[in-house]
Structures are given as structure tokens and as C-alpha cells.
Amino acid sequence: MLAQESQTRGPSFMSLAIRISAGLLIASLAAIILSRLGHFSGYLVFALAIAAAMIIRPNGHERSPVISALVLAISFATYAFLYSSEDLDAGRDNGVYSLLAYNIAQHGKVSVAMPQLDDVIARIGVENLGFYPGIYGAASDAHAQFNHLTPALRAAFVDVFGDHELASSNAVLAGIAVFLFAIALWEIIGSGWWVFGTLGLIVNVAFVYVSRSSLTETFAVAAVAMTVLFVSLTLKKPSATNALFASGGLGLLMMSRVDGYLALPFLPLLTFALARHSLENIKITMLAISTTAIFLVWSVVDLRTFSNGYFIALWPIGLKQSVAAGVACLSVSIAIVAIAKLLPTTWHRYSPSVERWGVGLAKAFVPLCAVLAVYALVHSVVADDTRYDMYLAFTLVRAPRELTWYITVPGLFLAIYGAYLLISDRRPDGVVVALPALILIMLFLFYTRITPDHPWGARRWVPYTIPATLMLVTYAFSRFSIKHKLAAQIAALSLAFLYCFQQNAMAKNWWFVPLQSNWRTGYAALAAELTRRNRTFYLSTYSPTASVLTFIYGIPTVPINGKQNDPDVKEETSLPKVCGAFLEQIQGSNNDVEWIGPPNNVVEKCISTTIYSPSDDTPDPDVIPSYRLLAGWNAAEEWGSWTSGTSAGATVHVQSERPSKLIVDGFALVNLKSPNQTVEVYSGEAHLGTILFNVAAPSKKAAIDVPVEFLRGKTDLSLTFRISNPNSPLELGISTDPRTLGFALRSLSLVPDS
Asked: Phi and psi for 61 in degrees, rounded to 5?
């Protein structure tokens, strides 16, 4: 059997896990059903969840103790009612996220105590509730996805979980996911090695799901763990309850993920594993099949109706292909049941042979996966002539990097080996868990090879791949430790260290560099670095357009914010655009360009964009742009640019290695409410000078002495402008402009002393 008995396994602990799983499942489904019917009541869902946990009897004779209901009540109440807010990005994902979260925000939110809580936190000295120094290091409104918590809750949770959407809800749900995953590992492995896999998932939850990803990711991890747990329990002890919840886990995956159909390989394998034991299991199997079929149809309806057009054509596979795959899995399962029921003698005669062939094919599939993984890695990493340079890597499809950041290369191959061992050891029951897990891992590997998307694309696969990988890796270590305990422990610790190291390094990758300092200023820094290296690149006013051009067409493109007025760029009209279901050519500026997605997919509404390319005019070799803006500036305007915040960077061209004057022409945002503004100018940590503005003199052309030691061996001098008192025109009553402004730069140059 898939599950091994363990001396340390306590029935009450397992019973608690089953009840929490079932309660979460029932509560989530109830929320979706009631939302669909337009009669959502969060408190009714809450009551149903508690009732489910109380009455479910997984052992057939025990009722849940009160503690399980209390645990479920606390978890679900925290997740569902307290920490959701009314500005949810409800169209971001289909299914559970948009329906559950949106309706909770509208109808079930406990918000009465929020003003009092904000007041209490303000009194104890928490300041700057709109800004947090987490992994993003940006203001809460830097991106729509990060703006889903009240200031009080951000202050309470950001230090632990990062400034991200529903971070506190993620924390609660991540805890449930980790708990369920630990139980599933315990059931499959039956040894102390389940602790290693659980710790690995905890690290990943801390790094990825809570700090950098969204609510639907942690929900999917819980659903994956729940599915694996009930699949293993169904194989161990076939029952209607276990089969129902196994298919319910698959259903939740399909409802909560746009590509949830990819978990369906569990179904035909589970059907065969059950049917081979006894014809008495046919009714149980049919229950699982019919439940999964309902979820399949339901999720397709959800996909079309409640995703705001975001996934009308399922990305990247396509809705028709995905439905066809789901129908194929259902058809195979039904065929297995029909043969076993209608031709029992034939079934019993040939099912052992089918089993042997199936196990043999599954074992042959494993080395094929290893070969494909080697090919993908060699093709994209070893053959990568960028030598792992994070800026030059911008011009290449990065994708198995996305995979290897999450699970590491050794982890990938250990998972493949673990799948082989699980299939070999547990014959055919091991196939039911190992083969779908391996399929998900390989699809993730090759999906990230073709997607033009930034981390959102791979993010949709992470909830499948991380639990599957850790499960198979843990099994490989547990088997290896039977004969080589010390070596297995050292190898496991080494892998854990490498994993943590790469998770930290991931934040320094080229794509995440912009996220370190805010989307806008980060891309400015990226563009400046590419310019310094004399790399040709394009500019786009919409980041998804930049992704499509970079990764689909091989045209390196950097997102920018706003119009460009530099003389060395021009508006581009010949580059391809993606919009509708076909490729077109841009007909001029301000054309509609599609949201992220490969060609031939309609993904989301089109929006306006402009693309810039290097100017065709042959530049005068003696005329070099005097300066370039780096991080910390608002969009360029006809006269120049405003700073954004308290600090802004720039480089100025060095004409000669001799003492020079830095000419700064600009003005400040001042009025009677804020009459003074001070701008300090630095090069590195060295202070070069100070520019003072006031109501009487809001505009100046200042000259600052620059000693020769700052200029030796340089073609450009790096500068930082530190603004003492930035404000918005809205705050000062000047206009309705909400931007934080301070100093406006018209021109900047470095003139050698005569």
C-alpha cells in the first residue's frame, strides 16, 4: 500500500488533519455556491465549516473532538473575515479567489473595530503606515496587487510577511497548507523524513507564497496537499468519504487555478488502482468520477463567466485543449470502470498484465523526464553566453532559471529519482502519486521555457510543483537513508542550504532588481545599466508589452513610465503587437497592445502603449547627452522631470579630467504651506553641495564645484539628489496632483573650469 504504518502516528492527529481538510473544503465550496446564487453569507459559511468538522467521521465510528472545530473556526474566521479588504483585485484569478475574496470583502468583512485598531496602533508609535521596507521596499500603492490591507494590518504583519495582498490571510492559509502537506508526507513516507519535506515547504511559503505571491497560491498548496492526502487514504482504505474528498481536492484545484486541469492525471490512475483491488470499489470510483466531472464543467463555466475575460482563451495551452485533456482523463476513468463492471472475467484476467505494463511504462517515463530536463537546462543555461550576468540575461528567455530558483537543479533531479523509487517500491499505488507529480514538474519546466510573462507566469505553476517536488525529494532521501543515514542527512542539509541561498539570490536577479526599489525607478536603473554597457534596447510604456517583445520576439525592451523626450529615441511603429487573436503591426503611437500572453491568445483588455527605439538620425560624435536620469524620478515632461520621493539618481557626462562645475538648472515645489526646500547633491557618499529654494526664489541655476579626484578615469559621474521636504501638490492645495514631488530638474551638465 502507498501508506506505511508508523509507530509514531497518532490516530487523533490524523483524524484532526482529515477533519480540518474536510472542513476547509466544505467551507470553500459553500462560499462559492452561495456567491454564485447571489446569497453569500460569510457567517453561514462559517457555521457550515464548523458543522462539517463536527460531524465528519473519517474512521467510521468517531466524532470529531471539540478541538478540531475550534481550530477550524479560528483558522477560517481569520482567513475569511478579518483580513480581507474592499479593494481586492477580484479579476486577477478565476474561481475561489475572485468569488470568495470579493464576496467576503463585500458582505462578510468584520470592519467595525478597524478605526479603533488604527487609533491604537497610531498611539503606540507606528509611523509611515503607507510605506514598508519589505522585499519590495516600495509604497503600498506601487502596484495594485499590493494594496489589499488596511494600514493597521500592514503595520502588524509586514515585518513578517511583506507588504503584499492579503498577507495575513496568506499566513493563516499557508499554515493550514503546511499542516496538510506534513500529514500527506507522513502518510506516504511513514518515517521521520517527513519533517525535512515540511521544513522545505515552510521555507518556500516564507520566501514565495507569503512574501511574493498571492492568496490563490497558498490556497492551491492546501488543495494539492489535501488531494494527495485523500488519494493516499483512499488507496489505503477505500471509502466513499475518502474518494469524495480526493475528487473534492481535484475540484478545488480546478476552481482556484486557471490551469487546474493539469492535476487530473490523478483521476484515471486512482480509478485503475481502486478497480484492480475489487469490484466492490466501483461505486466509490464512480462517486469520485462524477464529482470530478461536475467540477470540470463548473470550472469551465467559471473560467468564462467570472474571470473578466482574463482567461477566455486559457493561457498558454488554450481552453479547448485544456477541456479536451480533462475530458480525456474522465473518459479513461469511465472506460476502466465500464470494463471492470461489464466484463469482470476479462478484467480480472488482463488487469495484472495492464498493471505490469503500466508500471513499466511509468518507470520508462522517468528517465525520459531526466533526459528532457537535461536538454532544457543545457539549452537555456549552459549554452547561455551571458555567463549569468543578470543584466545581459535580460535579452534571453530565462526560463528554466525560474524553475531552478524555486527548487534548485539538484532538487529537480532528486525529485525525478524519487519518482522512480516510489514507482518501483510501491507498484502501482506509487504510480498514482509519483506520475502526476512528475508530469506537473515537467510541464512547469517546459511552460517556463515558452512563456513571455514575468514571474506571474511561472507563479501559476509553483503551487503544483513545489509540493510535488518536495514530496518526491523527501522520498528519495528517506530511501537513501536506510543504508546511508549520515550521508542522506548531510545531502539533505546541503540541499536546504542551497535552496535558501538561491531564494535569496533570486531577489538579485535581473527581473527582481526593479522590484527592489519600485517598478518605475527599478526599470530606470536597469535601462541605465544597459546603456552603460552599450546594449541596444527598446523602451515601452507598458511592462507586459516589454515582456512580449523581449521573450517572444527577442527584442530587448525595458518598461518605462510616461512619454520620452530624449533626442536619441523615436516612437517605433514597425514592431509587432499582440492584440485580439492575431498578430498585427503597430500603426502609430498610442495603439492598443495586449496584456501578457503568447500570440493567438486573447487574455485581457487592450490598453494604450508607445514603443521607442534608438533614433535613425546619425548622431554628431561630438554631441553626447549631458546627463541621464536613474532611479527616483517621475515621468519625463517636455521641460524635464520631477523627483519622486526623497532621493533621485542621475549620471552626468564627464567632458574632461579637470576641476569642473556641475550646472544644475531646476526649481522646487514650494508655497506658503511649505515655503522652503533643500536639495543636497552627493556623489556616492561624498557631499558635493547644497541648493536652497524658497517662495521668493523657487527656481535656480546652481553651479557646484566638483574636484578632479571625482572625475579621474570616469566617463560619467554618478549623482544623488536628496530632497528634504517632498510634498504633493494635492497636499499643498496647489492642484489635484497626488504625486510626491520636491525638485524639478530642467537640465544638468558638467562644465570644465577654464
From this structure: -140, -10
